[in-house]
Amino acid sequence: MRANVSSHDLKVSDHKHHLHPFTDHGALEIDERRVITRADGVWLWDTDGNRMLDGMAGLWCVNVGHGRQEIVEAVRAQMSELSYYNTFFKTTHPPVIELSSVLADLAPDNINMVMYAGSGSEANDTILRLVRTYWALQGQPAKKVVISRKNAYHGSTLAGASLGGMGPMHSQGGLPIPDIHHIDQPYWFGEGMMTGMSEDEFGLWAARELDRAIETIGEENVAAFIAEPIQGAGGVIVPPSTYWPEVKRILERRDILFISDEVICGFGRTGEWFGSGYYDLKPDLMTIAKGLTSGYLPMGGVLVSDEIAEVLHRKGVEFFHGYTYSGHPACCAAALTNLAIIKREGLIARVRDHIGPYFQKRWKALEDHPLVGEARMIGLFGALELVPDENKLMKRFDNVGNAGIITRDHSLRNGLVMRAVRDSLIISPPLSITEEEVDHLVATARKTLDDAWEDIRRQRLA
Length: 462
Ligand code: PXG
What we know:
Number of strands: 14
Bound molecules: 3-[O-phosphonopyridoxyl]--amino-benzoic acid
Strand content: 5-15%
Distance between the termini: 46 Å
């Protein structure tokens, strides 16, 4: 790394040569970017001398917190022993063997196999090909359609973005690819409240959209339903309590596969190992990434049910699929150590029984702020829905997204990283966050809401 380069010069160089993901470069001022140099626990430092609380655990991934030297050491040791070898052509290696067995233990009873990828997007690409291949091998090649939901996020590759239900992503690059069908999402605050249905009725209605879609498309043409147990990037959308039980009933009756995308919900975020465990769902396939390595190295994967694995294990069957870095030894070492930390420190039970409820109570209290229409949190991820009028719960801001960005920017100025989704603010901190850090986070969020509320009224947005 270059030493003695000023913060401004770093930003100029970044501006000249670095195309950022999901960024309006025309609107990104040179000095507006933050150059992060160091992180420890829940804290980040930048080149301008600011210390910030990482309320997003990086990008929903640093579950064990930053700066764990134990993971660094495990990766270093693995890299000096065997820094790379592939898992193609009848070869394997100890870290991938060990990790697969650890993941099989963590997964539900009917899931005992893992196929690796480099990211959540790649894992969902794998899944799309896998489910269609599975049905073709079962003599039902017409079963190709995957049902997903609007405002779902399943990645950025062709299959990932197509499975996802983000309109702006579909508008670029000719997406979605064929045979992906999106049904409505169970978003009570954003869409349900206005229908006249009660929350429970809306949950049932949204669940039955799945049944209606299967009916319209024809069960003989449907391969699978893919869903995040709680939509993350869509805005931490916690479905009404009637939703998942009804979806479960529908899936039991229908001969289609269920894919639980656990990229955000997995590895403790909900206070269970997996979001599907939180809702007692029975997936056939699970997408994993992010919290698998806590982001220390990139890794994704697909957890595969025995039923699907058996079909793939038949003699004469080859799934023509895999990546150079599938099961990379250094990433396996990072994952193994990360999972060992989660177990040793009891982070899952900590989220479920202690720090989760502690945070949820304080987060919920933010609902008394005039800018907040709803404060929700499950496990350790939550959202604040911003509204322009404290007396009219169904009123929304005219220019969707403005209030969210204004508030997010105040949050950054106050030293707290939150993420804006439309006019909501998202929080998803490391699972290792302490009580004092939660108190600091909530106090900073409250100050941020005060600052933003003043700003929003000054700009006459409310
Ligand atoms: N599935 C889910 C549920 C995700 O949240 C992916 C798949 C894709 O994973 P990769 O590793 O390919 O990024 C994700 C990723 C955001 C944001 O701004 C969210 C994600 C990625 C980048 C940004 O909220 N989620």
